[in-house]
Recover the amino acids of this structure.
């Protein structure tokens, strides 16, 4: 299974129409806030993060990727008023940038690469989130390796299904 | 320099965006999260999301109501019969509790107690959550326009839920007691040991500030102290489930009385009032010690003539060298168990009202005798 590209020219770049580009992140944030009311275990998933990664690796434009991550992260921050704005923002900005940059070098069209990429970015996101919370905000947070690794697997598994569903909305550039 | 920025355009943009966010974060941390006004982005986000959540929850509630109230009525007759029996049982229970309550009120008046009473509550429905594992908070379908204010207490019939953290015109955000940034003054009911209820990063509810030598046991009830001015005293907070020893303090896990993971309807306490029990409501010369004397286990009943009893009192005074209070209630009828006690003055232990009062009232055999 080939997951790397030899040159950026071989990579296909996609775009979304403006409605999809607005609605997909908005729905991800909405479901992230709404669904755990009925099933609290769903909090293990980070739908806005998955959408950030998907938008990044699909559009393959680092600047748009980082801005997408920044906006999604800040909106997520705004729903958690006991923490200052910017914690999710910083983490998702870096993830958006990283996913877009990686999308240029990797083929992220197949399920295996999507699983691995999401798993890696989930851990990076959590690491950044915890670092910012502890280092900048001064909030005591415990890093639970077992939980994070398991949550990473769950998110990576979901990403395979979710990305396949979102593929319907992308258009070749 | 310009060439360098152009060549690494995306990296430059990343650095700029990160710098702005870190700068903004530093400003917020410096000001304190509570000190600042509610940011516009928070208002916009909440205003965009909560109406949809509220609409879905109300539609879902409506459909559920139609199904359960009009269509799915299987077993309702049996349930009705069971409930009638339950009502009968509860009525009997209520008579007993009323007597206990009135006695407790008299004692509170005599001891000059002041307590906070819930005067007004507003029911609200939970419509959403923060959507983050690290922040345990929920959104309500009521807000500033319905009279909600910051720091109001939120409860259910089972116990404490949390307090209102942010209020928006049509919605409010509640910080749950299992959030790691929350803190609630509580006491372990059996030991009257003060502690702080806090959430852990994993969303567990913990009891803090209890020394390692305290005898906290799994199953102990935890209630509010009322000292924070938010929650009235005596509301159930939860139950101790696990106690482990660390260096100086106990590490205590608690199960919240209210099911915080499945909140549907909650009550917001919109008005609290401090009620002082005026002494005038109680019979004039009746004292707390008189009532306690009637309630506490006394000496075995003996048929002693009044004269002998007085002599006995004199002897007791001489032996102990202390003054024994007269324990003759001014209104014996007001004490349901007063007639069961002999009219004999005996030295009583100094009452510790809050500590001894409740167990005595809860497990009072004399109270049961009054039925």
């Amino acid at each position: 299974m080939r997951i790397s590209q030899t040159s950026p020219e071989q990579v296909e770049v996609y775009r979304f129409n403006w409605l999809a580009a607005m609605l997909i992140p908005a729905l991800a944030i909405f479901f992230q806030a709404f669904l755990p009311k009925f099933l609290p275990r769903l909090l293990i998933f980070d739908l806005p993060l998955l959408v950030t990664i998907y938008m990044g690796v699909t559009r393959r434009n680092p600047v748009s990727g980082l801005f997408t991550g920044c906006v999604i992260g800040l909106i997520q921050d705004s729903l958690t008023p006991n923490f200052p704005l910017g914690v999710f923002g910083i983490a998702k900005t870096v993830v958006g940038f990283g996913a877009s940059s990686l999308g240029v070098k990797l083929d992220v069209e197949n399920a295996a690469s999507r699983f691995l990429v999401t798993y890696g970015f989930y851990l990076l996101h959590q690491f950044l989130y915890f670092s910012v919370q502890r280092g900048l905000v001064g909030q005591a947070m415990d890093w639970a390796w077992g939980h994070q690794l398991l949550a990473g697997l769950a998110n990576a598994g979901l990403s395979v299904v979710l990305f396949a569903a979102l593929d319907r909305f992308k258009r070749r550039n | 320099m310009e060439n360098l920025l152009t060549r690494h355009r995306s990296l430059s943009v990343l650095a700029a965006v990160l710098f702005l966010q870190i700068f903004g974060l530093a400003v917020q941390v410096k000001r304190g999260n509570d000190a600042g006004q509610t940011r516009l982005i928070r208002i916009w986000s909440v205003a965009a999301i909560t109406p949809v959540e509220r609409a879905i929850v109300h539609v879902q509630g409506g459909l559920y109501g139609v199904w359960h109230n009009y269509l799915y009525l299987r077993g309702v007759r049996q349930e009705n019969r069971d409930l009638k029996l339950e009502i009968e049982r509860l009525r009997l229970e209520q008579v007993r509790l009323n007597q206990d309550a009135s006695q407790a009120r008299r004692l509170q008046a005599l001891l000059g107690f002041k307590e906070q009473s819930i005067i007004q509550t507003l029911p609200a429905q939970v419509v959403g959550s923060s959507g983050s594992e690290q922040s345990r908070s929920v959104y309500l379908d009521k807000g500033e326009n319905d009279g909600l204010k910051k720091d109001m207490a939120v409860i259910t019939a089972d116990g404490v839920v949390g307090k209102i953290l942010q209020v928006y015109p049509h919605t409010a955000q509640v910080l749950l007691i299992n959030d790691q940034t929350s803190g609630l003054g509580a006491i372990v009911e059996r030991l009257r040991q003060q502690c702080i209820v806090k959430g852990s990063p994993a969303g567990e509810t913990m009891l803090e500030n209890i020394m390692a030598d305290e005898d906290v046991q799994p199953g102990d009830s935890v209630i509010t102290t009322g000292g924070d001015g938010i929650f009235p005293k005596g509301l159930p907070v939860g139950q101790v489930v696990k106690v482990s020893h660390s260096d100086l303090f106990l590490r205590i896990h608690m199960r919240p009385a209210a099911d915080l993971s499945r909140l549907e309807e909650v009550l917001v306490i919109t008005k609290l009032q401090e009620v002082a029990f005026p002494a005038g409501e109680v019979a004039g010369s009746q004292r707390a010690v008189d009532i306690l004397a009637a309630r506490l286990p006394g000496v075995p009943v003996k048929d002693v003539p009044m004269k002998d009893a007085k002599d006995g009192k004199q002897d007791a005074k001489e032996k102990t060298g202390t003054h024994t209070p007269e324990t003759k209630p001014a209104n014996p009828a007001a004490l349901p168990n007063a007639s069961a006690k002999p009219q004999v003055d005996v030295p009583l232990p100094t009452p510790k009202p809050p500590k001894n009062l409740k167990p005595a009232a809860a497990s009072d055999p004399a109270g049961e005798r009054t039925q």
